[in-house]
């Protein structure tokens, strides 16, 4: 009766923020999983990634070489995932033929091509001399 209301405890925002971040990670992993399920050529990238890591371990790469290889592999995956996302959005908004839809898909595919060529250059620079030396010695 007229007494002061007991103060409500302030909402504990920090754990909520953490939960939201964790959920975002979950969505991101779900996205990678969905892309892997729907895009067959990502399996080629997965196989290539395993081969490159195996070759790197076998060759005993230097630390900086691992950095270059990791960045290249990650960048190609990143370009492929963005390309997959662009394709999905284009298919959603323009299921019928439209020159702009085609251009968007072509440009996204071009981004993958550019990154794949750059990764190939890194691969040749890092592994090329070793493979050449083995071929000559054999
Ligand atoms: N809605 C569209 N309008 C115009 N051109 C399109 C459209 N959809 C696709 N294209 C053209 O066809 C090409 C291939 O499209 P598609 O959706 O089959 O891509 P993709 O790279 O073969 O993808 P994936 O094989 O991964 O499904 C595009 O790069 C684009 O030139």
TrEMBL record:
Substrate binds at residue 80. ATP binds at residues 27, 39, 87, 105-106. Its cofactor is Mg(2+). Mn(2+), Zn(2+), Cd(2+) and Co(2+) support activity to lesser extents. Pfam families: DAGK_prokar (PF01219). Keywords: ATP-binding, Cell membrane, Kinase, Lipid biosynthesis, Lipid metabolism, Magnesium, Membrane, Metal-binding, Nucleotide-binding, Phospholipid biosynthesis, Phospholipid metabolism, Transferase, Transmembrane, Transmembrane helix. InterPro entries: DAGK, DAGK_sf, UDPK. One of its GO terms (molecular function) is metal ion binding. A divalent metal cation binds at residues 39, 87. One of its GO terms (cellular component) is plasma membrane. Its main location: membrane. The chain crosses the membrane at residues 42-59, 66-86, 106-127. It is a multi-pass membrane protein. The active site is at 80 (proton acceptor). The keyword Iron-sulfur does not apply. It is found in: Cell membrane. GO terms for biological process: phospholipid biosynthetic process. Belongs to the bacterial diacylglycerol kinase family. This is Diacylglycerol kinase. It comes from Hymenobacter swuensis DY53.
């Amino acid at each position: 009766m007229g007494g002061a209301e007991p103060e409500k405890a302030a909402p504990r925002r920090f754990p909520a923020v953490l939960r939201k971040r964790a959920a975002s990670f979950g969505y991101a992993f779900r996205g990678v999983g969905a892309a892997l399920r729907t895009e067959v050529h990502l399996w080629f990238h997965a196989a290539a990634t395993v081969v490159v890591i195996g070759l790197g371990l076998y060759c005993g790469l230097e630390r900086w070489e691992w950095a270059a290889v990791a960045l290249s592999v990650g960048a190609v995956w990143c370009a492929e995932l963005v390309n997959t996302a662009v394709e999905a959005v284009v298919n959603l908004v323009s299921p019928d033929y439209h020159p702009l839809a085609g251009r968007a898909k072509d440009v996204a595919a071009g981004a993958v091509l550019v990154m794949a060529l750059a990764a190939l250059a890194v691969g040749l620079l890092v592994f090329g001399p070793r493979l050449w030396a083995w071929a000559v010695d054999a």
